[in-house]
Specification:
The complex is a heterodimer of chains A (784) and B (156).
Chain A (H helix, E strand, L loop, with lengths): L22 H5 L15 E7 L5 E7 L1 H4 L4 E6 L6 E2 L6 E2 L5 E2 L5 E7 L2 H10 L1 E6 L6 H4 L27 E9 L2 H7 L2 E9 L11 E6 L5 E5 L4 H12 L6 E5 L15 H10 L5 E4 L2 H5 L6 E10 L5 E13 L5 H11 L8 E10 L13 H19 L3 H8 L20 H11 L14 E12 L9 E7 L5 E5 L8 H13 L6 E3 L3 E2 L14 H28 L6 E4 L2 E4 L2 E7 L5 E4 L5 E5 L1 E6 L21 E12 L5 E11 L6 H20 L30 E7 L21 H13 L10 H14 L1
Parallel strand pairs in A: 1-14, 12-13, 16-17, 20-21, 30-31
Antiparallel strand pairs in A: 1-7, 2-6, 2-8, 3-7, 4-5, 9-17, 10-15, 11-12, 11-14, 13-22, 15-16, 18-29, 19-20, 19-28, 23-24, 24-25, 26-27, 29-30
Helix pairs in contact in A: 10-16, 13-14, 15-16
Chain B lengths: L1 E6 L2 E6 L6 H8 L18 E4 L2 E4 L12 E3 L12 H8 L9 H14 L5 H8 L10 H13 L5
Parallel strand pairs in B: 1-5
Antiparallel strand pairs in B: 1-2, 3-4, 3-5
Helix pairs in contact in B: 2-5
Classes of the chains: A alpha+beta (784), B alpha+beta (156).
Chain lengths: 784, 156
């Protein structure tokens, strides 16, 4: 069978730069976030938190707090004996009996003012019996201190392997080919350890929610949420409510990066609402509270790679041990996704991966932009550099020799197709942009040295096999349109991109389309979540179906009026016309509410297009081998860096950052470029200085922006360059897939590679601080 | 206690507590919610307003210190239905993503351009280093500031 794909959509607006549709609201300061919402007679909430990293709650005395004037409700864990969690239900809303990290909620208060609520929190007295703590997930796996003695009894999706006696909440296994045989065939084996600490999302808007429980049983929650429908689902599950009695409204989100996916702190304010029905209660986290809400997991990795002399990889064995913190819930799937994506964008015929998610007494590790891929690529890309060094091959050449190409299989046994994406082209273009073939020009008469590095990457959406999307298109009397797609605008520019896509799918101009905000689960069609860089792909499919549905309704009515078969009609701009006689037409405004004949009788009715989509042909992975069809589509990429290092201080200056991504069709170069540049700078943070720190007892040390630094305008590289390879993704009529997460993934290994190029030293622990660079230089000096 | 001050060219009288901040007063009493609380410690710049011509973190200004002051917030920038040239510049360069830090950046930019109409990159970086943005990577904000300087008549 000969097959050649042709997109059913003619692109007129897709692919062109269009200014963001949310711009005016944002530059005027009028865009409303949950923190900006006030209701009459509203109460304010505050949370009592654990001051210790691990212990048993012996007694909670709320009597003094209750006696304080203006206090309306106090809840402790006994009032809400429910656990929550998207994949593994391990997290109490408020812990009733045991605290597992510093900052864990143990009680909450609603009061007339925030000041009273905070004073009441101080008056709550809690007695603890301290327990030994565990900080390092590798130690934790010995099982000497059990963080969740009841783990075996928690509900979980059957796609996860728990090992309760080892504090392991998920053990992902990949078994492909025969690694023993593979290593026997290898000429050289290179192994190493690679690690990184937990990382904080640091959205400028902290977590915030307002809850209102009416006496008739209807619960409404306004939340700064990436996942309004999943949030509704998890609230309803935890509080045992029917879904139609729970309404989640999510206005603009002031930055999410994964930290506002799933359920976070909403349950606390809902628990207070249960006690004070008929009044709004607002809970806004302080920066310190926000940092202790959710972070990216830390990781310790060991990678062993076997290669032929010419650089062909024949085997790889990898162990990833994630510091999942006190609760896993969302993080289970991070561990799984990192496990199944390893070794990244390369073909490895014999592969054995063990990815472990392990509980510790740290902040809980959840979803973070990149979802395990920044972590796994840190380990594998570093290891590949060390393979190249051992073989005396250029690191780029080694990568190009081993890239995934059509016909080869990835770690899950999925076959790469002609439209899967082109990592080879990404690597070559990134090399071109940074002029990889020319060595860095060294500053004269200076103690500063420069170098360049490059790294590859790949990521697919990590989502359940049925993570669905739905879209509704409503035509109005004048043939303008409102569009409902329940992806959250978290800064990525979805509202703008989907407007362009809808314009091309409906053949009308973007100024006639209004994207409906905010997402309201009582009004909007279902959407799984705004995560995983999946929106353009999954909503793109649903949108195309909704547009076809609407256009078919219009053509069917017009067919009756014009006496022409529907397939001979076309919709364009303001009209529906006969394809072969364009002068015969009806204006859309005369048809989209139904058509009325001169004598008054009418046919048709208001046009509403409906489209639903669920990822096609996915399967769960085999729990023992990790083989299966878990990934729907892949975005490949490559990143490069040039750095300058001061030999005396170890200080690193970023000269250039480069990113090239194959995300299929680029819907809007402006918003796509925004994701790339913003993502690369967000990836530079953990490369150079970001990381959550604890003391040796498990007390956090980095709970403010003074102690937890994120990049400022003074930190950005002298030059940032990027480009796109656009391999049409044929599982979407738009050919598009995501690029939201990818730009931050391989910034750290590209920088580490540049450090090696400059200094001849490998630094395998993140962040790449001046201190670590100096120590590596010193070690090199001593070794020589 | 009662304090009076000028905000966006209007005189206001507000009943405040001595331990309240100017940010609380603006947001919770005057419902001027453009200035955001990002940290409450003067570390992020999301609450930046102009106080007697200077950019300040309004979370660090106690309400009584606003007595007699002239305060400008992002809400005061639009004249009638017209955007301010700095707002136009941010709009045209798409110098925002989630938008939470944007009012703070715009107010820091305004305070800077009133003193330094045609700032070099070094000056922009120095004056905006107290405003954090987690989304954009800052390059578009640099573009916006340069465009705003041009629009406001700074030589180029």
């Amino acid at each position: 069978m000969k097959y050649k794909y042709q997109s059913p959509i003619k692109f007129q607006y897709v692919g062109k730069p269009m200014n963001r549709v949310d711009g005016v609201e944002k530059v005027t300061g009028h865009a409303k976030y949950v923190t900006d919402m006030f209701f009459p007679n509203m109460l304010y909430a505050a949370v009592k938190r654990s001051p210790i990293p691990h212990g048993i709650i012996k007694k909670i005395d709320t009597s003094k707090a209750e006696a304080l004037a203006g206090v309306r409700a106090i809840v402790t864990g006994k009032d809400v004996p429910y656990r929550q969690g998207i994949y593994l239900v391990d997290r109490p809303i408020i812990t009733p009996d045991r605290v597992r990290y510093v900052g864990e909620p143990v009680a909450a208060v609603a009061a007339d003012t925030l000041e009273i609520a905070r004073r009441a929190v101080e008056l709550i007295e809690v007695e603890y019996e301290e327990l030994p703590t565990v900080q390092d997930p590798r130690e934790s796996m010995k099982g000497e201190v059990l963080i969740h003695p009841d783990l075996a009894n928690y509900e979980r999706l059957p796609i996860y392997n728990i090992e309760p006696e080892k504090n392991v909440f998920h053990h992902h296994k990949t078994r492909k080919g025969d690694v023993t045989k593979g290593f026997e065939e290898a000429d050289v084996i290179v192994e190493g350890d690679y690690s990184l600490p937990q990382m904080y999302h640091a959205p400028l808007e902290p977590h915030a929610a307002i809850s209102y429980w009416e006496h008739d049983g209807k619960l409404t929650v306004w939340s700064s949420a990436q996942s309004p429908f999943t949030l509704r689902n998890l609230i309803a599950y935890a509080f045992k409510l029917p879904r139609h009695k729970v309404r989640v409204i999510a206005p603009y989100v002031g930055g999410g990066f994964g930290g506002k996916a799933g359920i976070n702190m909403e349950g606390i304010v809902i628990a207070l609402s249960e006690k004070v029905k008929g009044r709004h209660i607002k809970l806004v986290y302080t920066r310190e509270e926000d940092i202790s809400t959710v972070v990216r997991q830390g990781m310790f990795a060991h990678i062993k790679t076997g290669v032929k002399k010419d650089g062909t990889i024949v085997a790889m064995e990898a162990t990833l041990i994630f510091d999942g913190g006190a609760y896993a819930e969302y993080g289970t799937n991070v561990v799984r996704a990192a496990g199944y994506t390893l070794p990244g964008p390369y073909y490895v015929p014999n592969l054995k991966t063990d990815s472990y998610g392990v509980y510790t007494n740290h902040f809980l590790g959840g979803a973070f932009r990149g979802f395990g891929h920044g972590e796994l690529h840190w380990a594998t890309e570093r290891n590949l550099d060390e393979v190249a060094q051992t073989l005396g091959i250029d690191p780029l050449e080694l990568r190009l020799k081993n890239v995934l190409k059509p016909g080869l299989t990835n770690s899950m046994g999925q076959t790469i197709h002609h439209d899967t994406g082109n990592v080879e082209a990404c690597l070559k273009r990134a090399a071109e942009l940074i002029e990889y073939d020319k060595k860095s020009e060294q500053p004269e008469n200076s103690r500063k040295v420069r170098g360049k590095g490059i790294a590859g990457l790949v990521k697919a959406p990590a989502m359940p096999t049925n993570a669905g999307s739905a879209v509704i298109i409503k035509f109005h009397e004048d043939a303008t349109v409102t569009l409902q797609a329940s992806i959250q605008e978290i800064g990525q520019g979805f509202n703008t991109a989907v407007t362009q896509m809808a314009a091309d799918a409906l053949h009308i101009s973007p100024d006639k389309i209004h994207f409906v905000m905010p997402v309201d689960t009582d009004v909007n069609p279902y959407e799984w979540q705004t995560v995983a860089s999946r929106a353009l792909w999954t909503v793109g499919n649903a949108l195309y179906r909704a547009a076809e549905d609407a256009l078919n309704q219009i053509k069917n009515i017009a067919s009756q009026v014009l006496g022409v078969a529907p397939y001979n009609l076309e919709v364009e701009d303001d009209r529906v016309y006969v394809k072969y006689r364009p002068e015969k037409y009806i204006l859309l405004k005369d048809i989209v509410m139904g058509y009325t004949y001169p004598d008054g009788h009418s046919i048709g009715g208001p046009v509403i297009g409906r489209g639903s989509f669920t990822p096609e042909m996915l399967t769960n992975l085999d729990l023992e081998t990790g083989q299966g069809n878990a990934a729907a589509e892949w975005t490949f990429g490559a990143q490069a860096a040039e750095v300058e290092i001061d030999l005396d201080t170890g200080e690193l200056k970023m000269l250039q950052l480069v990113g090239v991504f194959d995300a299929g069709t680029i819907i809007n170069p402006i918003t796509a470029g925004g994701q790339v540049v913003g993502g690369m700078i967000q990836g530079m943070g953990p490369a150079l200085f970001e990381g959550v720190k604890y003391n040796d007892k498990g007390y956090p040390l980095t709970v403010s922006f003074t102690d937890y630094k994120i990049p400022t305008i003074a930190d950005i590289p002298d030059e940032i360059k990027y480009d796109f390879v656009q391999t049409f993704e044929e599982s979407s009529p738009f050919g598009a897939k995501g690029v939201g997460e990818h730009p931050m993934i391989s910034v750290p290994p590209a920088i580490a590679s540049a450090i090696y190029d400059a200094l001849g030293v490998n630094v395998d622990e993140l962040p790449l601080t001046a201190d670590r660079i100096l120590k590596a230089l010193e070690k090199k000096k001593n070794d020589n | 206690m009662k304090i009076t001050f000028t905000v966006n060219n209007e005189n206001v009288e507000v009943d405040v507590k001595p331990n309240e901040t100017l940010l609380d007063v603006l947001r919770e009493k005057l419902y001027l919610t453009g200035a955001k609380e990002g940290c409450g410690n003067g570390e992020c710049g999301a609450c930046t307003v102009i106080y007697n011509g200077r950019p300040v973190n309004s979370c660090l200004v106690l309400a009584p210190e606003a007595e007699g002051a002239v305060i400008e917030t992002v809400e005061g920038l639009t004249k009638g239905n017209n955007l301010h040239p700095i707002q136009e510049a941010f709009l045209e360069t798409n110098a925002f993503q989630c938008g939470y830090c944007t009012p703070g950046f715009i107010m820091s930019t305004k305070a800077m351009l009133e003193k330094v109409p045609n700032p070099t990159k070094e000056v922009i970086v120095e004056r905006l280093a107290g405003n954090l943005c987690r989304c954009t990577g800052y390059t578009v904000i640099l573009d916006a500031v340069k465009l705003a300087a041009q629009k406001m008549g700074g030589a180029e």
